[in-house]
């Protein structure tokens, strides 16, 4: 039944009817959340980069060896936010120097007095203009560099208003991975979205042996709302304990 539903959704997607395919794929995932193909086709339907990323991460969680999925996530990671223009940053950019030709006033003539400037006076004025222009441009470059640095080094949330209310976890020794799951609650006083939860696992000596993170199952949480989550950490069959940390989210 699931395969037939997936074939139906794929047919709709290829016909350009993504909005009709999405409910079908979501029904499939309700029946089997670990259906890799369903997540991959849902990523095709997603319009927002964050939604597409979430779908691909789920597909990669199910099949960590899928190189196509890894490539898709890598391509999303390289799609950076467009840098702000100098005007948007409040930097005053001087107008470009005019291009003179035989139809307008040459730079060696003072239009206020119609007096011809000497060669030295003309060079001094041009040097002054170029010097100011270069100074303003350098200031703009420094400003952009600072803004980009702040953007790339945005710290994790320090106000831990999203709490883990319940959790469970342990290793699957047959397949060599650990699964951590549970429920979180939004106590921030406002709506949040795209909540990231990190799991860290330790062996019986207390040494960290692995970590991973995932989004909460619900993309958007109103104040007081709860959501489940699940994190898979590979190559951790010797897990003896774990910790969970809600480390990032978007404030709406």
Explain the layout of strands and helices.
Blueprint: H1 2-14, H2 18-31, H3 36-45, H4 49-62, H5 67-77, E1 109-110, E2 115-116, H6 119-152, E3 162-172, E4 177-186, E5 192-202, E6 208-215, E7 220-221, E8 226-234, E9 241-251
How does this model look, in words?
- The protein has helices at residues 2-14, 18-31, 36-45, 49-62, 67-77, 119-152; strands at 109-110, 115-116, 162-172, 177-186, 192-202, 208-215, 220-221, 226-234, 241-251.
- The protein is globular and about 70 Å long.
- Strand 5 (192-202) and strand 6 (208-215) form a beta hairpin.
- The protein has 252 residues and is α+β, with helices and mostly antiparallel strands.
- Strands 5, 6, 7 and 9 form a four-stranded antiparallel sheet that branches. Strands 3-4-8 form a three-stranded antiparallel sheet, with no helix packed on it. It has a two-stranded antiparallel ribbon with strand order 1-2.
- The protein has three domains: 2-77, Tetratricopeptide repeat domain (Serine Threonine Protein Phosphatase 5, Tetratricopeptide repeat), CATH 1.25.40; 80-154; 162-251, Sandwich (Immunoglobulin-like), CATH 2.60.40.
- It is 38% helix and 26% strand.
- Helix 1 (2-14) packs antiparallel against helix 2, helix 1 packs parallel to helix 3 and helix 2 runs antiparallel to helix 3.
